[in-house]
Amino acid sequence: MQTKGTSDDESAGDKAELTDDRFLGDADLARWKTPAGRWLATSAQRLSAHLGPYGALILVLAAGAVVASLLAFATGGVYEAVTEADGVAALDHPVLEAAKTLRSPALDAAATAYTDLGGGIGMPILAAIATTVLVLRRRSWTPAILIVTAAAGSLLMTIAGKQLIGRARPPLSDAVPPYEYSPSFPSGHSLNSFVIAGIIAYLVILRCRSRRARAWTVTAAALFALTIGLSRVFLGHHWLTDVLAAWTLGAAWLVLVITAHRLYLTARKSEKPGHSRGETQSG
């Protein structure tokens, strides 16, 4: 049996999603200006009528995950063409050689400790902490759904890319231990840190009231993703193109997740139009 306190918390969380999360500064995320956007919004509203807002959100994210997997395969094909033509990949060896000249025992140890934040242990811990804080503060399961799905999608893209390409990592003689032996493309650390830092930053800036706060949040997330990726190259665990491809895939998947959230907000707005913050803006 649901207690009154629990019901009040959920009601407050629902109201905050419509009054706060729906707006990014003055932009109404539930407003779609293009025909394709309006078609997506109408489809999301119909799904929500049958499945409920959370059900529709999960279904849209699942469809997005399929698209993300196809993106990983497509990126792999483009990557092979680029490396065969010696395009961007021509930078791989010079950049690695430059990174080796910067190494020292202290810097290697610091970079190894830092890169572990984006690994299979550090990143889930950071994501779990952020998810718990956001869920409790917002009294909503939406942050958990978005963060978990974003992380799962990036993991699927990492696995798909590694299986498709099977590229070898830089030689162990050029790498800093501990060594890694899985396929090199794409960089899982770079992809996962980009996506998770990006979705957390997105959720945080929805509640930021000033442009400065939003700018600092985005900058912090971008620097984290950037430095995790560069640390992989510095340590000789990945080629530069592995990291660049990971960032590209991460950006594409992040756009899909944010679009799914916007569709969710649109469905919630049509369900409870009286709760919006700026009805005069949403006509």
Write the layout of secondary structure elements.
Layout: H1 4-21, E1 23-24, E2 27-28, H2 35-51, H3 53-84, H4 92-102, H5 105-115, H6 122-138, H7 142-165, H8 188-205, H9 211-234, H10 240-271
Antiparallel strand pairs: 1-2
Summarize the structure.
The protein is an all-alpha fold and 283 residues long. It is built from ten helices and two strands; from the N terminus they run H-E-E-H-H-H-H-H-H-H-H-H.
- Biggest sheet record: 2 strands, antiparallel
Task: Let me know the average pLDDT.
Answer: 83
Helix content: over 70%
- Radius of gyration computed on alpha carbons: 21 Å
DSSP, total strands:
2
Element string (H = helix, E = strand):
HEEHHHHHHHHH
- End-to-end Cα distance, whole Å, is 39 Å
Q: Helical stretch count?
A: 10
Low-confidence stretches are 1-7, 273-283
The coarse silhouette is: globular
Tell me what portion of residues adopts beta-strand conformation: under 5%
Strand order of the largest sheet: 1-2
Assembly type of the shown chains?
single chain
Computed structural class? mainly alpha
